[in-house]
Amino acid sequence: MALKMLPLVLAAPGILGGRRYTYQWSGMLVLGYFAEGVTRAWAERGISQSLALAEILLSAIFFAAAVSYARRTRAGA
Fold it and tell me: Which residues, including other chains, have CB under 8 Å from residue 73's CB and lie 6 or more apart?
């Protein structure tokens, strides 16, 4: 679990600091978590499936928020 959290921990200072570039690359990074959630939701049952569905939801929310933030803070806007 620590290895799964490492990319998110590395992105946290940039996200909390409002750096646009961090939002851009972390938006792509979170798609890996989305793919893992879909795979686990499809393959597993019980509590693992419920947690995978939560992972899908959270990663989709983060992706939408990151894309929205990156669009709102672009240089030409």
Answer: 18, 20, 23
